[in-house]
Specification:
Strand order of the largest sheet: 1-9-8-3-4-5
Number of helices: 2
Oligomer: single chain
Length: 220
Amino acid sequence: MGMLHVILVTLLCCSLAHCRGACAEPDSDTEAVAGKGFKLGCLSCKRRSEVHATATVEWHFRGKGEADFYRIYTYTEEGPNIESDNFMDRVDWNGSKRSNDIQDASIYLLNVTFNDSGTYQCFFNRILLYDNYEYSTVVSKVVHLTVVAKATRGTASIVSEVMMYVSIIGLQVWLLIEMIYCYRKISAAGEEALREAANAEYLAIASEGKDNCAGVQVGE
């Protein structure tokens, strides 16, 4: 039972070592339905997860046919703030929670209208906190949103969903192969340890037998 417990724990550690959590940056959806809610996705991953950081977020919008962007939403240490009357009471924070190290700056639009069609820009104002200094960076993402009367499903969406399932299946197969590899490696190490223990025990018995024989001869 003890050996089985060790094998299971080691397999788990081996799997975790090869399957470290990772941050992905998928593109936002770009088609919303009028009268419904819609998530504007915006993710920016740190390249070094061990570095502490803080970040604030700004969202800007430029309507179709308009020339300039204007700020519609900010999220800071003090919380969210809707900056534009056009989006008042229609924007909810849908990003990172309970952390100033924001990597997901997604927002949720309520009661989408056709006037919400246009280009959205998301800005991460990030400060990386090193031991002896701080480093500021600005990362921006762009979302081109189209508002339609009825939802449609394009070819890109279908292909994306298929690829997602293929990736999941591939990851599971890879994990299974890793577990089998770890199990065989641990089993081989265990068998080697048992052989060494058996050889040591055999040598000890043989040595003890020789000592007994020598004692009998001296006695005679």
